[in-house]
Automatic annotation (TrEMBL):
<protein>
    <recommendedName>
        <fullName>Homing endonuclease LAGLIDADG domain-containing protein</fullName>
    </recommendedName>
</protein>
<dbReference type="GO" id="GO:0004519">
    <property type="term" value="F:endonuclease activity"/>
</dbReference>
<keyword id="KW-0472">Membrane</keyword>
<dbReference type="InterPro" id="IPR004860">
    <property type="entry name" value="LAGLIDADG_dom"/>
</dbReference>
<dbReference type="InterPro" id="IPR051289">
    <property type="entry name" value="LAGLIDADG_Endonuclease"/>
</dbReference>
<keyword id="KW-0496">Mitochondrion</keyword>
<keyword id="KW-1133">Transmembrane helix</keyword>
<dbReference type="Pfam" id="PF00961">
    <property type="entry name" value="LAGLIDADG_1"/>
</dbReference>
<feature type="domain" description="Homing endonuclease LAGLIDADG">
    <location>
        <begin position="138"/>
        <end position="235"/>
    </location>
</feature>
<feature type="domain" description="Homing endonuclease LAGLIDADG">
    <location>
        <begin position="580"/>
        <end position="667"/>
    </location>
</feature>
<dbReference type="GO" id="GO:0005739">
    <property type="term" value="C:mitochondrion"/>
</dbReference>
<feature type="transmembrane region" description="Helical">
    <location>
        <begin position="19"/>
        <end position="36"/>
    </location>
</feature>
<feature type="domain" description="Homing endonuclease LAGLIDADG">
    <location>
        <begin position="295"/>
        <end position="390"/>
    </location>
</feature>
<dbReference type="InterPro" id="IPR027434">
    <property type="entry name" value="Homing_endonucl"/>
</dbReference>
<keyword id="KW-0812">Transmembrane</keyword>
Length: 697
């Protein structure tokens, strides 16, 4: 009927790009159907005439307001009276939101039973809406479980002798097949393949992959899987242009595959000996975009764990595990959920864990979060069991009753890998089982992401990472640390940092021991190391790396106390993470209110400590007469970008200041739009959003 209708251009309506545009276009189509199709009108007459009138009135309101919105947008671009047009635009937008809400309420409370219509069509739409996954849930889940593969295989019968194939895949246990079906229904492309005990959701054809690309362009990944996706997309675009059928294009694809997640095999390398691997893109931002992203990511990589000791002591752990390449992402979880801490694995150089172990944080932050933004797979069952067990524990200092202890033990026996799926058919919404659950005693193999051979850390690389940590720690101590030796011969180390920077302190505590306490009446934490064994190990690690003259004097007293020879530091170079630690402690990354410039600065009383920085990184040193100190600052765009790409990329910060480092390039893209201009209203809104995020860090 619509194809033959002269009243409407279907192509134009369905070309609307925005969510609201699509919604109102479809509403217009339904409106025409209800008003102009005699068969439908006749079917709905009589018994349903009142409801038909209500629907027609609603759709009439939608169309009139939709046209008003379109007119307002036109006025916004052409009228000299900007503020009147903007006010009108906002007014009509609010009307549309109201109508949208009314329709949602109406459709949820009035289920029309059209006897002569296609019931299956309406039922399918209803079911689809009920089971629709949130877009950011999909992105978060793929950040944990997805895989973007680039396959190149010899095929003598093909034009250039090789076949190029792109595959987007999520592989889970067959117990999780229903969750994969929901993902397939979300994308409406691809297929499920079951082999043995596992099921995969696969998308291979270029037409179908366009749907996948569109999704991740609109809802981008934030783990290092973003880099794999960018390489995948580069090959996708080359294949769309048929470049894979040409020698030059095939060489480009091989170059890209060489740095992709699975790398290139020795056989492929031998077939293309002259190919230089492409540059692997680095993830731009790991700022968590949406709470549903967290739900999806935890669905793939998280675990709710109950620990029972031999003395029947019960503790609870919420855990998320990742490869060390995504350590910044785990640290951002600390900030986003406002609880927990990060620890590198002592038994694996490849993995680290985000932990929440404080009972009050679990009760007041973790449980409410996942109640509001629920999990979708069988991990929901683990969460509900975990919640039951937590509620049985009234407090840290309240002893469990015998009955409650027995109940917690019973709950634990049925959780995670011990859970038996016996009701898949009876209650499919609650039967999507988790496939791979991180274990506290895991050897680090829980992370299923594939990395190229170049990404695997060798013993030599692990040693290099350890040296980077020692240099960073020395820089941190030079800024915020203090060695002390009492008259009685007791030595200690104290480091004070802001409460938002607790995870670097926990990393130090994990390695050397000590304790962390909140400083009363302030937003600061104090780390203190008194244990001689841990302190001696720390001194050996930073000896020869400390540069602050005041700290050298303090360290010398501690070394004398433990009969250790004090080592002088070598000249500072760019290939040293000391500066990262120094910025984490005494540095500032801010936007000047007067000039609008972005400035990275460090304040110190000793100019000697700042002079090498000026030589290495540029900038200037000024005297602060009011504070009797010196300030080293970098403010030129070129110098700051060189610092971001040439230094912080290799020696990243560990404090919350790293979030601002990751936003610097975005600042330079948007800062020119910080002054309101009618011609760049969208860019101005982006600047306002950016500035809000910046100010909250």
């Amino acid at each position: 009927y619509l194809k033959n209708s002269s009243l409407i251009n279907i192509t134009n309506l369905l070309s609307e790009r925005t969510i609201f545009g699509k919604f109102y276009s479809i509403s217009f189509i339904l409106y025409l159907l209800l008003l102009n199709n005699p068969q439908i009108t006749k079917t709905l007459s009589g018994k349903f005439s009142a409801k038909l009138a209500i629907i027609q009135n609603l759709f009439s309101s939608i169309i009139s307001n939709y046209l008003a919105l379109k007119f307002s947008k036109f006025s916004l671009n052409n009228s000299n009276n900007f503020f009147n047009s903007f006010k009108k635009y906002k007014m009509n937008t609010n009307k549309l939101h109201l109508i949208h809400t009314l329709i949602q309420i109406y459709t949820k409370t009035h289920s029309l039973s059209f006897s002569s219509l296609n019931k299956k069509l309406f039922y399918s739409i209803l079911q689809c809406n009920q089971n629709k996954l949130h877009p950011y849930y999909i992105t978060g889940f793929v950040d944990g479980e997805g895989c973007f593969s680039i396959n190149i295989r010899p095929r003598p019968n093909r034009g250039k002798g090789y076949a190029v194939e792109l595959v987007f895949k999520i592989t889970l246990s067959s117990k999780d097949k229903l969750l994969l079906e929901k993902i397939k229904n979300y994308f409406e492309v691809g297929r499920l393949i079951t082999q043995g005990s596992s099921t995969s959701y696969c998308v291979k054809s270029l037409n179908d992959l366009q749907v996948i690309v569109n999704h991740f362009d609109n809802y981008p990944l934030i783990s290092n899987k973003w880099s794999d996706y960018q390489l995948f997309k580069q090959v996708f675009e080359l294949m769309q242009q048929k470049e894979h059928l040409k020698s030059e294009g095939l060489n480009k694809i091989v170059s890209i595959k060489a740095v992709s997640n699975k790398g290139w095999s020795d056989k492929l390398r031998a077939l293309f000996p002259n190919i230089v691997p492409s540059l692997r893109p680095s993830v731009k931002s790991q700022i968590i975009p949406d709470p549903y992203w967290v739900s999806g990511f935890v669905e793939g990589e998280g675990s709710f764990y109950i620990k029972l000791s031999n003395k029947d002591l019960v503790s609870f752990r919420f855990l998320v595990t990742q490869h060390v390449r995504d350590v910044e992402l785990l640290k951002n979880l600390i900030i986003y959920l406002n609880c927990g801490y990060y620890l590198p694995r002592s038994n694996s150089v490849y993995h680290g864990d985000y932990f929440v172990t404080n009972l009050e944080d679990i009760k007041n932050k973790i449980l409410p979060f996942f109640e509001k933004f629920p999990l979708q797979g069988n991990k929901l069952k683990d969460f509900l069991d975990f919640k039951k067990a937590v509620e049985l524990k009234k407090g840290n200092r309240i002893r469990l009753t015998t009955e409650n202890l027995a109940n917690i033990k019973e709950i634990k026996l049925g959780m995670n890998q011990n859970r038996i799926s016996d009701d898949n058919e009876k209650n499919p919404l609650n039967s999507k089982l988790l496939t791979r659950r991180p274990s506290i005693k895991s050897n680090g193999s829980i992370n299923k992401r594939h990395y190229s051979s170049s990404a695997i850390i060798s013993n030599e690389q692990a040693k290099c990472e350890e040296i980077k940590f020692f240099e960073w720690l020395a820089g941190l101590i030079d800024g915020d640390g203090q060695f002390h030796t009492s008259k009685k011969g007791f030595s200690s180390l104290k480091i004070i940092m802001g409460i938002n920077d607790k995870y670097p302190l926990y990393e130090i505590k994990h390695k050397y021991g000590g304790n962390i306490k909140h400083i009363s009446g302030s937003n600061a934490l104090k780390y203190k190391l008194l244990n001689p064994k841990g302190l001696i190990n720390l001194i050996k690690d930073v000896n020869g790396l400390i540069r602050n003259p005041a700290r050298m004097l303090q360290l010398n007293r501690v070394c004398e106390n433990y009969n250790i020879n004090l080592l002088e530091p070598k000249a500072l170079t760019r290939n040293n993470s000391w500066f990262s630690g120094f910025i984490d402690s005494d540095g500032s990354i801010h936007i000047d209110k007067k000039s609008g410039q972005l400035i990275i600065s460090v304040t110190q009383k000793n100019k000697y400590l700042l002079e090498p920085l000026q030589i290495l990184y540029g900038g200037r040193i000024q005297i602060l007469t009011s504070k009797d100190a010196f300030i080293y600052s970098i403010y030129r765009k070129e110098e700051i970008l060189n610092l971001v790409d040439g230094y912080f990329k290799n020696f990243p910060l560990k404090s919350s200041k790293s979030l601002k480092i990751n936003m610097i390039k975005e600042f330079y893209l948007l800062s020119e739009y910080r002054n309101l201009n009618i011609n760049y209203i969208n860019e101005f809104n982006q600047w306002v959003t950016f500035k809000d995020k910046w100010d909250k860090i």
